[in-house]
Amino acid sequence: MSMREPSPRASRLVITAGIVAVAIVGGGGFLLGQRATNTRPVAAVPAPVPAVVRPAVQPEQDAGRTLGRADLIALAASAADATAQATAMPATVRGMIGRSFTIALPFGCAGPATEGSDAAMRWTYDAADGVLRIHVAPLAWSPADWWSGEAPAGVEALEGFWIARPWTSSETCPAARDPVAPMGAEPVTLPGQTLAIGQIFDRESGRQGRREGSPYTAVLRVTADAVQPGKGFRVRLTGRIVAAPDGDPVVCQQAGGAEQRPVCLVATSLDEITIENGTTGATLATWPAGGPTAAS
Fold it and tell me: Three-state DSSP class for 262?
């Protein structure tokens, strides 16, 4: 039996049916894709966490606190930074004028002074007699030591103490240790002190409060166990921060140029000088600033 050729009408119907089927399948796939797209889970985006806002410490809230060693070091660091940049002192520096402070400076940490020593702060102990002798002399500076140019009018003298190791807030003798330097590096030592605390005297103040080379000395009877050479002693300074003649509470200078760390002096009015036992912390002698020399 021979095959019959499809008529033109039948061919058209077949073609039309195929097109309709493709459209139906394509449309269904599109709708399914849309549904799948619309129902696809969306990754959750966490809500932003609000920043915690801490109220700034108001100056009046801190005004009653007595400043300590760490505060004075921070004050001097701000002043040194301004000096290095040749800019005006920050308002926070001037804001310290009038604040009370107390700071203890350890001395004699290497042990008793040798015979004939002229160290400004030293001590000796006579074990046979049980007698402790302490010698504390403020250093005297000339105006030229702190102002490379012309000093403010009226300034005659400065007296005070170096704050040794101004990179630490510790007020005790440092622990003894052997110097260690990393491989390929040489230990760096400072050529001198960089931070001092003291009083600035002008012509109007006369001689009141000046030591002019006179030390504070004390002769005390103590037992041997109260004296430990590695602990030394402490001189405690109590007073308030004042403005130097230029209006700032810190005087800094860079006599050696921009590569030198600024050397700074915190200007103060001292009220009291106290000697403390570095071992027990007990007060051994107290003088009003500029008061009598000896205590026993």
Answer: coil
**What is 194-219 written as a DSSP string?**
-EEEEEEEEGGGTTTT--TTPPEEEE
In this structure, is residue 42 part of a structural domain? Answer: no
Helix (H, G, I), strand (E, B) or coil at 37: helix
Burial class (CB in 10 A: 0-12, 13-18, 19+), 14: exposed
- 232 within 8 A of 107, measured Cβ to Cβ: yes
For the segment 122-154, what is each residue's pLDDT rounded down to a tens digit? 999 999 999 999 999 999 999 999 998 788 888
Determine contact, residues 266/75, Cβ cutoff 8 Å. yes
Q: Which amino acid is at 241?
A: I
CA distances from 169 to 27, 104, 166 (A): 79, 10, 7
SS3 at position 235: strand
Does 35 reside within a domain? no
Compute CA distances 264 → 41, 195, 196, 261, 273, whole Å.
66, 5, 6, 9, 21
Dihedral (CA of 23, 24, 25, 26) sign? positive
Domain with 93, as residue range(s), is 63-113+120-173+191-295
Cα-trace Rg, the chain: 39
Q: What is the pLDDT of residues 162-195, one digit of tens each?
A: 999 999 999 999 987 666 666 666 655 555 799 9
| Residue 33 within a domain | no
Give me the half-sphere count of Cα atoms (radius 13 Å) on the Cβ side of residue 31. 6
**Looking at residue 145, what DSSP letter applies?**
G
Would you say 234 and 105 are in contact if contact means Cβ atoms under 8 Å apart? yes
Residue 213 has a pLDDT of: 82
Cβ proximity of 237 and 225 under 8 Å: no
Residue 101 is assigned to a structural domain of this protein: yes
**Could you give the number of structural domains in the chain?**
1
3-state secondary structure (DSSP) of residue 92? helix
